[in-house]
Specification:
alpha+beta; seven-stranded antiparallel sheet; four-stranded antiparallel sheet; 18% strand
Length: 356
């Protein structure tokens, strides 16, 4: 891990203490015989940290499983949204072109799986990687990708962890770029390499300059790296609950925090404001389609833009109710549909309670 340094002089997050909206006593409707109190429902899905922001202030916060306010939590794939926003910011500054091919920035990448794809295809997970199979079977691509990125121990003769070497085994695209949605960590990994190439800065420094200092983060964060120094931007950001709440508030403010522009408005115009287009993701939750674009998810009927990280790491910007909510959990499985549905139910209930 490499440290992402916070500003030790940063102002504390504004908060209203003593549960002003009585969320401790809020009951959530679940498909059982009775409604469930928010704290009990959070405990049932192995929640470690839960925070609610309203009008730029922290109005509720609770911890479990021994987590403390200064502890950092691996965000898993929630990390990807930082990369998506960074790439858009660099494009707005004229440092890269989203319609260009990755070869224009990484001529020595030597991975023809990206042939014919644009940076936008990579942002939207539309690059022709083959099915990575089971992430728990040693013979599958998914398992080996996590070995090289550092998520799993070295096995099967892997003596050197290298995301780049792993990517270079993929030459022939399994489908034409832009024709299919295929969620794959390697898109984010290569976008990170592009960002480092056009700026001449390591990823941790880019996170400090573009997020941590502008967000006035109070705690150091961290990012994983492989043995070549490539950042694990698809999974390896680790931050505190309160600093995640700052990020959520920035999403809710469409790129601003405490009156300061951090991410260009164009990111939100190109992401949330645009209706779903083909190819669509195949995912649904509570009978609602989850749209994906620019490394972030949306449940448009609920007015939500949200990140998703394995084992329960979620950041929600609820535009209908003007709240931001962070969940940090320790699920037993990578993705658990019932727990995910409970998260959406909690977001809906909290939004209704705050705005009644």
């Amino acid at each position: 891990m490499v440290t992402i340094h916070a500003d030790p002089e940063a102002a504390a997050l504004e908060e209203i203490k003593n549960d002003p909206f009585n969320l401790m006593a809020l009951k959530v409707s679940v498909p059982t015989d009775k409604d469930v109190l928010v704290p009990d429902l959070l405990k049932s899905i192995n929640m470690k940290g839960f925070a609610v922001m309203h009008k730029g202030k922290l109005v509720f916060e609770t911890y479990g499983q021994g987590m403390q306010p200064h502890d950092i939590q691996i965000l898993q794939s929630t990390s990807k949204t930082f990369t998506g926003m960074l790439i858009h910011k660099l494009a707005s500054e004229g440092l890269l072109d989203l319609s260009a091919n990755v070869d224009e920035y990484l001529p020595d990448l030597n991975a023809d799986v990206f042939k014919g794809s644009t940076l936008q295809n990579m942002l939207d997970m539309e690059v022709g990687f083959p099915d990575f199979g089971n992430y728990y079977k040693t013979e599958d691509f998914g398992f080996m990708s996590e070995v090289h990125m550092g998520l799993k121990p070295k096995v099967l003769g892997v003596e050197h962890r290298s995301t780049l070497l792993f990517i270079q085994q993929f030459q022939k695209p399994a489908f034409a770029a832009g024709s299919k949605f295929s969620y794959n960590d390697m898109n984010t990994q290569v976008l990170t390499m592009v960002a480092e190439q056009v700026t001449g800065k390591p990823y941790a420094q880019l996170m400090e300059e573009n997020f941590w200092h502008p967000l006035q983060a109070r705690y150091d964060a961290a990012i994983s790296i492989d043995e070549d120094g490539n950042a694990g931007a698809s999974w390896g950001m680790a931050i505190t609950l309160r600093d995640a709440a700052r990020f959520g508030q920035m999403m809710l403010n469409r790129g601003s925090f405490n009156g300061k522009r951090i991410i260009p408005e164009s990111y939100f115009e190109a992401t949330y404001d645009q209706p779903p287009t083909e190819p669509l993701s195949p995912y649904f939750v509570l009978e609602q389609h989850e749209d994906y674009r620019n490394q972030v998810w949306m449940l448009r009927d609920d007015g939500l833009m949200h990140t998703i990280g394995s084992f329960g790491q979620y950041i929600f910007a609820d535009y209908k109710n003007e709240i931001a909510i962070v969940f940090m959990a320790n699920w037993k499985h990578t993705s658990h549909l019932e727990s995910k549905e409970h998260l959406i139910r909690i977001v809906r209930a909290v939004g209704k309670q705050i705005n009644r």
